[in-house]
Amino acid sequence: MEKAFRIYLEPVFGWDDSVQREKHRERFSPERNRIIMDSGEDVGILRTYPDDQFQKLSQLFILPEYQGRGLGESVLKIVLQEARERDLPVRLMVLKNNPRAIQFYKRFGFETIDHDENHFTMEAS
Fold it and tell me: What is the separation, in whole angstroms, between the first and last Cα of the chain?
């Protein structure tokens, strides 16, 4: 998924392949990850975490060559529906230097509820 997020992470945190691979291994949890597919091809990843107070959307990455086809929209609608069924809002963090993602989430009703130096925390009901 390097293609999907390196352009946003590198300017903020730098990039070291071995460090990124190790972070991925540490964070990878098969039961929390769903592979996004298009016509039988693996094109992205979705990671969510249930919580008592909200559904956390940890990662939604789609390979650049598959973006703009409505895949992210379809996946996000599923996440929002799953959270509604549990009567929970969806919360996420997005890098401030990723205006395309910020606008994408705003289209689905996400609002900024907090921020730090590098991220906005956004939430939608």
Answer: 28
Average pLDDT per block of 10 residues along the chain, 125 residues long: 55 66 62 86 90 91 92 96 95 94 96 96 96
Q: Cβ(90)–Cβ(57) under 8 Å?
A: yes
DSSP letter for 119, please: E
Q: Which among 82, 84, 76, 92 has a CA at the least distance from the CA of 125?
A: 84
For residues 39 and 97, give the distance between their C-alpha atoms in angstroms, rounded to a whole number.
31
The pTM of this model reads 0.74
Range of the domain at 60: 2-124
CB 76 within 8 A of CB 47: no
24: nearest Cα among 72, 54, 58:
58
